[in-house]
Amino acid sequence: xxxxxxxxLVGLLALAACGSGEKPVFEPLDYDYLTKxxxxxxxxxxxxxxxxxxxxxxxxxxxPSRPLKTLRKMADQRLVTGSMTGRAVLTITDASLxxxxxxxxxxFALRLELFGADGNSRGTADARVRGARVAKDDGDxxxxxxxxxxxxxxxxxxxxxxxxxxxxxxxxDALQTTDxxxxxxxxxxxxxxxxxxxxxxxxxxxxxxPPP
Length: 212
Prior knowledge:
alpha/beta; Rossmann fold; 3-stranded mixed sheet; 3 helices; elongated
């Protein structure tokens, strides 16, 4: 089943529950199945100190999967370290959901920076996605949660693709393989050494017959 079909199925199930009078159930988001991004760094730091700003009507707290926690979970599940020195810093720079003129609008952004053993920066990778969804009934709690869940899922799918693209482009030489099926080393080949002319040959063991 593709990501789009999973996204559609979750939305239909939530809507069905809402229409029947039952509280909708939302499947937890998980990204452990995606390709790991193994960094040439000895430590990983995640800065999730982002907070809503401005006068817009922020509604992150109404989403079944809070954007900040979801972005943190994605980073925890997708980024791994593979060295003894250096460090990587992942900063969540935007995790906003706002209600604006009958639409839910989202903006998610991440920044990854690598530092060498000397503390100098080795570069950065920035990824940002935006999304919007018409609010069917922003006065109904269940309808709002269904809309926000669908929006967050779609945006996270888009962000995973964009983030991996930007990381691979920015850190071509700082990504290590996570393939566990690397080819085994070839068999060691042996070769007979040529006999030097005139050199004595090694004595051969004599077979002694057993006593009668």
